[in-house]
Amino acid sequence: MAPKRKLQNHTEERKSKKAKFILDSDIFTPSTRQGVVLVTGQNDVGQLGLGDEVMEKSRLALLELNDKEIVDICAGGMHTVCLTKDGKVFTFGCNDEGALGRKTDEEENSEYRPGQVELPGQVIQISAGDSHTVALLEDGKVFAWGTFRDTHGNMGLTTSGNERFPYEIIKDIPIVKVASGENHIVFLSKFGQVYTCGNGEQGQLGRTSERHSGRDGRGGMSKAQREKLLKPALINVKPSLRLHFENIWCGSCGTYVKASGTDDIYVFGLNNYGQLGLNHRGQQYTPAHSKIFSEQKIVEISGGVHHTLALNAIGNTFAIGRHEYGRLGLGEDSKDADELTKIPKLSDLKVITISAGSCTSFAVTDKGGLFCWGMGTSGQLGTGNDEDCLEPTLVAGKQLEHRSVVKVSSGGQHTVVLAVTTNNNKSDE
C-alpha cells in the first residue's frame, strides 16, 4: 500500500507562493552628515540647552556640544533631542515627566545642559512629542521614555505610568521608522505594517472608535481600555485593501501613512480645519484615503496642531488648514485652506525638507537657506523679534553667515537647526 501524502507539503507550497512583504533595507538610510546645532525661542525650562541664565533667544544661537558629531535633531514640546554620528542620544529641557530619559536631580540645573541617555545599542532615528522621546536602534528595537497626556491629564507611557528611563515599547517586531505626535507614537515595521500607541482622543491612533478613544465615559478609563491605548497595535485597515505602507509622518494630533508602491496617502486624527485633507470636519478614527494628498506625489509631511505642510518630489511646498498667525505662509489676505495650496513665496525654490511646529512652519532649500513663517511670539522663528511672519521669510544672522542648513525641527515654543560650515572649503561633515 502506497504511503499517504502529507498535507504539510501542500501547506508549504502555498506559503512559498505568497511571499511575505518586506520593505527595502535601505529605505530610511540614517544620516551621516554632521553639523552644529543652532537654537532659538523659549529656554524657560532649558529646551535650548544654553544654561539657566538664558530665558529666551530671538535669533539662532550656537549650542556648545563639546565637539559631539551631531547628525540629527528633534524639538519636543519643551525639550530637545540630539543624535550623534556614533548613535548616542543627548537630551535637555523639561524633565518633569521623564522626557529626558536620564537623571537630572543629582546635579543642579543639569536639565539645562545636554546630557547622554543610556541605551543598549546604537541609535539611528529619534522622535519627540510633548512629554515623550523615542529612539530607534540599528537592530530595529525601539525604546521610549516620558509620558502621554490627554484632556484629563497624565496617561502614563505604559500601564505602569510614566517611564523616566528608556523602556522597550514594542517587542519582537523589527521597526524601520518611528514618528511622534504631541501624545502618540507611530511605528513602521519592516513588513510594511503600521502600529500606534498613546492618546487616541482625536482619532490619531487609527484603530479605536470614538467611544473607546478617551476616558469620558462613566468611571473614566478602565484598565483594559488603558492597555488598549498604551500598548502598540496595528492600525485598522480593511483587509480587503491588502495595503502595505512605506512611510509614516505625524502632526500634533494626526497621522499620515503612505501606501507602498503608490502615491496614496491615508490619514487619521484631528481634522477640524481640514488639515488631514478630508472633506469633512472633526475627527477621523480609522485610516481614510486623502485624495488631496495623494494627487501631489508627496515625499514628506509635517503637521502642527491645526495645519499641515507637505513637500512633493520636485521640491514644491504646500500648506493646508488654519491660517491664523500666518502659519500657512499664504500672505496677509489669506484664509483657511481646504486644499493643499502651493506656497507662492517658495515656488521658485527647491525645498528639501520641512517642519511644522504647533503654530510655526519652516522650509530648508537645496542651497541651505532656512525660511520661516507663522507665530513668532517667543522668538521661535529666529528672525530677531517676536512678530508673526505671514509669508516665508529667510532666516539670517551671525550663526548662518558661513553655514548651510540641512535640517530644522520646530516644537512648542522653540526651534532647533542642524547646519554645516561652508566657508574656506571646510565642512562640518
Q: Any chance you could write out the topology, listing elements then pairs?
A:
Elements: H1 7-17, E1 36-42, E2 56-62, E3 70-75, E4 79-84, E5 89-93, E6 115-117, E7 123-128, E8 132-137, E9 142-146, E10 148-150, E11 153-156, E12 163-170, E13 175-180, E14 184-189, E15 194-198, H2 223-230, E16 233-234, E17 245-250, E18 254-259, E19 265-270, E20 283-289, H3 291-294, E21 298-303, E22 307-312, E23 317-321, E24 337-342, E25 351-356, E26 360-365, E27 370-374, E28 389-394, E29 403-410, E30 414-421
Antiparallel strand pairs: 1-2, 1-30, 3-4, 4-5, 5-6, 7-8, 8-9, 9-12, 10-11, 13-14, 14-15, 15-16, 17-18, 18-19, 19-20, 21-22, 22-23, 23-24, 25-26, 26-27, 27-28, 29-30
Any key phrases for this structure?
429 residues; mainly beta; 4-stranded antiparallel β-sheet; 3 helices; 30 strands; 5% helix
Structure description:
With 429 residues, the protein is mainly β. The chain is built from three helices and 30 strands. It has helices at residues 7-17, 223-230, 291-294; strands at residues 36-42, 56-62, 70-75, 79-84, 89-93, 115-117, 123-128, 132-137, 142-146, 148-150, 153-156, 163-170, 175-180, 184-189, 194-198, 233-234, 245-250, 254-259, 265-270, 283-289, 298-303, 307-312, 317-321, 337-342, 351-356, 360-365, 370-374, 389-394, 403-410, 414-421. The strands form eight sheets. A four-stranded antiparallel sheet has the order 2-1-30-29, with no helix packed on it. A four-stranded antiparallel sheet has the order 3-4-5-6, with no helix packed on it. The chain is globular and about 55 Å long. The N and C termini lie far apart (74 Å).
